[in-house]
Amino acid sequence: MYQRHPSQPTGDPLDLNVVPKVGIIGVGTIAEALTMGLCAFDDQRAEILLSPRNDTLSRRLALRYPNVKVAADNQAVVDESEIVVLAVRPQVTEEVLGALRFRPDQQIVSLIATFSVQRLSSLVAPANEISRAIPLPPIAERQGPLALYTQSAEILRLFDGLGSLIRIEDETHLDLISAVTSLMGTYFGMMGTVDDWLIERGFKPEASRAYVGELFFNLASAARNRSAESFTRLSADYSTLGGLNEHAWRELQAAGWADQLQAALALILDRIHGRATFDTQLPGAVNPCVDQGKN
């Protein structure tokens, strides 16, 4: 069901004489990272036209890369592109796309997590070839996971090598991946908690952050290098029987840490499906902002 591709450029690059014209509507953090990834290593695998929504960011990218230009407006992006990447916020998607006129020969790549192909179909008609992707910020350096749902060989060639490409065959699984990406802040939050604990006990901040960062980096590298093995196996391999690692994980599990993590993922999935909002909390949870008297 899933196919994983290497993160390095393939040995069969696109013919630079026939590179596609790619337009990006909505230029924020992810669209910036995608643009940088497409242009990394002087690859120039596409002619890129950016919408002027974030004029400062779009023009900075255009100044940096010779194959990137800024359009006058969103309709100009559509008119001059063969592949249109949608990177607008879900809250304004219907408003933005409803004002645009697409062509039947265009391919659409949506980065909008909460919009299925079916939901997008009426908004981009008569264009009817729609792919979906979930890139993350590390794509700027052609690193990190890149989930792609597509039946298009051209879209596959365009995205291949921009990260660790994971092809998704069941579109509904993109929602699960979107939920998992919500843990990026949690990951760094856990590191921050460990960092605070060390600093409170006398560590200098620079020494603490260097150690914690290096520790978690190497653990993540081990997981990537041993991707054929389960994380349960890795946990066992890194935990001496009766040792400190086994003790810490046992106590966190007993305190419900693992169950709460899965409950949080389920809550985020409910939000993606429109069954919850940012104000929805897990049972018994205390809002840290309210608890600390913050707005």
TrEMBL record:
<dbReference type="InterPro" id="IPR028939">
    <property type="entry name" value="P5C_Rdtase_cat_N"/>
</dbReference>
<keyword id="KW-0560">Oxidoreductase</keyword>
<dbReference type="GO" id="GO:0055129">
    <property type="term" value="P:L-proline biosynthetic process"/>
</dbReference>
<keyword id="KW-0521">NADP</keyword>
<feature type="binding site">
    <location>
        <begin position="87"/>
        <end position="90"/>
    </location>
    <ligand>
        <name>NADP(+)</name>
    </ligand>
</feature>
<dbReference type="InterPro" id="IPR000304">
    <property type="entry name" value="Pyrroline-COOH_reductase"/>
</dbReference>
<dbReference type="GO" id="GO:0004735">
    <property type="term" value="F:pyrroline-5-carboxylate reductase activity"/>
</dbReference>
<dbReference type="InterPro" id="IPR036291">
    <property type="entry name" value="NAD(P)-bd_dom_sf"/>
</dbReference>
<feature type="binding site">
    <location>
        <position position="74"/>
    </location>
    <ligand>
        <name>NADPH</name>
    </ligand>
</feature>
<feature type="domain" description="Pyrroline-5-carboxylate reductase catalytic N-terminal">
    <location>
        <begin position="21"/>
        <end position="113"/>
    </location>
</feature>
<dbReference type="Pfam" id="PF03807">
    <property type="entry name" value="F420_oxidored"/>
</dbReference>
<protein>
    <submittedName>
        <fullName>Pyrroline-5-carboxylate reductase</fullName>
        <ecNumber>1.5.1.2</ecNumber>
    </submittedName>
</protein>
<comment type="similarity">
    <text>Belongs to the pyrroline-5-carboxylate reductase family.</text>
</comment>
